[in-house]
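Protein in question filed below.

…
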Amino acid sequence: MNSTQAALRDQIRELAEEAFHQKLISGHGDGADMNEYQIVYQGKPRHLPLEQAHFFLTDLLYRSRID
């Protein structure tokens, strides 16, 4: 894993922790593939590529603030 991927994974973990504490997701963690991150959303585990996981969490957190 290169430093860019490691930094992205760290950002995703922070976003996921925030989403988890706000009860927007029910779980998260590293995926089976090092280029994926698992997010449990609406009771379903989703294995997302890192870039997509970052976008998903950012969007989810943003929408929760404007509602």
Remarks:
- The longest strand covers residues 36-41.
- Helices lie at 3-21, 50-66.
